[in-house]
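Collaboration report, partner site 2.

Our partner group contributed sequences for two proteins of shared interest, and the home lab folded both. The records are reproduced in the order in which they were received, starting with the first partner submission.
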Amino acid sequence: MGAVLGVTRAYFLGASVKEVGIGLAGYGTVGKGVVDVLRKNAAVIAQRTGVRLSVVHVGARRGASDLANTGITVSQDVFDVVKDPSVDICLELMGGKETAQGWIEAAFARGKPVVTANKALIAESGTALLDRARAAGVPLLFEAAVAGGIPILKALREGLSANQIHWVAGIINGTANYILSEMLAGRSFAEVLAEAQALGYAEADPTFDVEGIDAAHKLAILASMSFGTPLAFDDVFIEGISALQPDDLLYADNLGYRVKHLGLAHRTEAGVELRVHPTLVPKDSLLANVNGVMNAVMVHSDAVGSSLFYGPGAGGSATASSVIADVIEIARCSGLASEQLVPALGFQDQVSTPTVPVAETTSAYYLRFQVTDGPGVLAHITQLLGEANISIEAVIQKPVHSQTGLVSIIILTQPVKETIMDGVLSRVAAFPESGAPVVKLRVASLEGLN
């Protein structure tokens, strides 16, 4: 064994190392992370890959004073990076859409591969960009666009490529997950959001995070990678967390559930379900115990069953790890040619599949009715549910609320089609006793996702 190891080690130490120049557009948290990780781990990357990766040019509109005297060219015009002949692989780390897309297309025009962390751009314009990449004969990779440092896309593209994926369920926005984790202690959404902004977990404008748009971008990519369907961001049903009340998280806890903001992609006989919304998941499930700013993606496939991928969904070093993994994949290929790579979305061709409207999806439901106290109200609600053949799993009735004067009735149902449930709720809303809109949250068993 020692002789074999000695030969192997000698081979790697004696082998020629390919030099690859890296150009970055954007020098924020992730850009700095890429430079730092490449500096720190240059030797181990060269040993593993036979490739020496060097950042040679950085495009930074505000400059990059810390790169002075490093030998790295710094330009305030990011398009200077793609024009530099010493740049072999281009990294788009600016974010945004119009400038980023133009920059990527400029790289393609010069025959240069691109790695990006831009989930919005891939989810909304990825089909056109991938077509341009194929036409240029170069790859476009985007591992860091979903779940930061978690290598979930490579797992779907390669590690699980022998499987048929049935469903994917992910906590894929750390800001929303942090807020829900803290609200379980009875704190209000507004209070926790302000804290998240102070800690740097949430942007000054948190809309993309708390209203589910960021998670929907990531889900569109996950679904395409899982099922071989086209990127379909516009088809994702999106519901945020800003309307959630601490009471509902506590009542769900009493019923044996945690409320998580999930991205769900589910392949059914009718088509693919794509939805992002607050979801009750069993307290003893792995996803229920992912807290704070952490991310996790659960994949259910035919050969493996359920597997969980957990880790940091953001951060300079963590996201840089995913960016550099894509760079290494490209650099390992002789000539940097796209045909030598695993397809960017994991399938040779995308198969058009209908997206199931959320009204046609089936789920169990958590319902909280807020009504004036009086005889027969609960009986009337349960009668309407029974007439619609909706079975009841559990019922809790709370005392009269001291401030609103309303009684909360919480009902957990068995799975039912959403359009049927909404029909019942519209009838309940017409009750003279109804004092507030019904709170409706979906429940996922994480077995059949209903």
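Second partner submission, folded after the first:
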Amino acid sequence: MGATTRKTGISVMGDVPWGGHVCLFYLTRDDLLDTLVPYFKAGLDSNEFCVWAVADPLKETEAIEALRQGIPGFDRHLERGSIDILEGHEWYLKGDQFDMQRIIGGWHAKLNFALAHGYEGLRVGANAFWMQSSHRKEFYEYEHDLDKALANRPMLVLCTYPINASRAVDVLDVARAHQFTIARRDGEWEFMETPELAQAKKEINGLNDALAVLINPFIGSELLTPRERSVLAYIMKGASSKEAARALNLSPRTIEFHRAHIMQKLGAKNIADLVRTVLRKEYRGPK
């Protein structure tokens, strides 16, 4: 499947893994084009089949002209058929009917076409025109389902939403349905943090002690096997036996077996004592 990470062409993002689902909130037409043109250039340069589902504030002819101006030799890509410019409303609401399975199935068909014709994968850009439509709720559900459908597939999808047409609740709903959310306002970039992302950062900060168990030596660490150190890392994180077992692909009983051996080797009476034993500077040995 080629490289597992792809260049986005978006300076604040860099490379992302296949299966990436990105949301852009933009303020002006220039903000939209200044993001999408480099995004598609990166895809074409990486031998990806590109699809742009165009909707307001752009017309198909305007999208093509912007790509032509921003991508050297763009007409060769167009003639080769490496990029497909679609009318967004017709793609999503064929006959003015919303059909989630048809839409997602359509993307999978595009991906199959790309792979069958020697492309590395599929890169999609889609302008959200439904913010003020009666299909708003259905499209939010579609975004969540699409996020799941991208897993383990060589696809990148960038969904673009106008800030001026978005309420605060819309921003949160849309951000939760994407893996990455960025905003561009009058040429300035911003990362937008959802409550889930804030919680993830908090958990990552709380993993410092757990990661140290795996990365840095501590007094008594030489007594533990690599498996025991992995189990100890989850203990330091505060994981239950079931959570550690699920993460390490072991049974809870095996986790408890390792935990008993770890406590015996490090001379700990209980979990709290075990944590103190790992963090203190002097190792006292078994008691």
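Feedback sent to the partner group on the second submission included the following. Strands lie at 5-7, 15-17, 21-26, 49-54, 83-87, 122-127, 155-162, 180-185, 188-191. The two ends are 55 Å apart (CA to CA).
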